[in-house]
């Protein structure tokens, strides 16, 4: 594959991120130029995240704001952004500066050669400033790789890019629910379809502002249950997959 990405849709799911979002969006626009659209998908944050984005970027056509007032959640917000995207590929990022915006050009370039590009904490050069979270995630990923048979070291990465035409081959209903567990479901399906993947090292830093919404014991139990469901579903003849839609298909 050698098909350059002409336009990249950057999806930023947000909930109470008004202290980070303006700086992040401005940096992404600076780096990406006219070849990006930045899509802030906000779950009706009570701190006014959407209002800040609207006020700061209302005159910039590269910034799009989606406010979701029902059926909220991380994975469903990401799906909403993907379905509304107009780019050849999407890049999904956290909005707390865990994910370094400077990785954008490299990941966009690699999407010209691969179906999926994963920002990985567990390849050489990757890591996390939060040492406890790093080793907990590393150990859990060993189990995920073993059970699911994926070729990716970081099956819980929230920082990834994917070509839109390959995303639309997947069963969106089976993937985009819950929290970060959506990503190992996505990789499981993509692996079964033989998609080309590559990992690049990323280093997660602590958020500069705001409070983390991760609750580790709940995440562990929820992800383990989600993994069990994937294994059960893999052994059952399933209905035809429900693909992702795009706004112009509606």
Task: List the keywords.
250 residues, alpha/beta, seven-stranded mixed β-sheet, 9 helices, 16% strand, globular
Largest sheet: 7 strands, mixed
Strand order of the largest sheet: 3-2-1-4-7-5-8
Tally the structural domains: 1
Work out the helix count.
9
Radius of gyration: 17 Å
Gap from first CA to last CA = 30 Å
Structural class: alpha/beta
- Globally, the shape reads globular
What report would you give on this structure?
It is a single chain. The protein has nine helices and nine strands. 38% of the residues lie in helices and 16% in strands. The strands form two sheets. The protein has a seven-stranded mixed β-sheet with strand order 3-2-1-4-7-5-8, sandwiched between helices. A two-stranded parallel ribbon has the order 6-9. The chain starts with 7 loop residues before the first strand and ends in a 16-residue tail after the last helix. The model has no long low-confidence stretch (mean pLDDT 89). β2, α2 and β3 (63-67) form a beta-alpha-beta unit. The radius of gyration is 17 Å and the shape is globular. The chain is of the alpha/beta class and 250 residues long. The chain has a single domain, classed as Spore Coat Polysaccharide Biosynthesis Protein SpsA, Chain A (Alpha-Beta Complex). The chain has helices spanning 21-32, 49-57, 74-84, 104-110, 131-148, 164-167, 172-175, 182-192, 216-234; strands at 8-14, 36-42, 63-67, 89-92, 116-120, 127-128, 160-163, 197-201, 203-204.
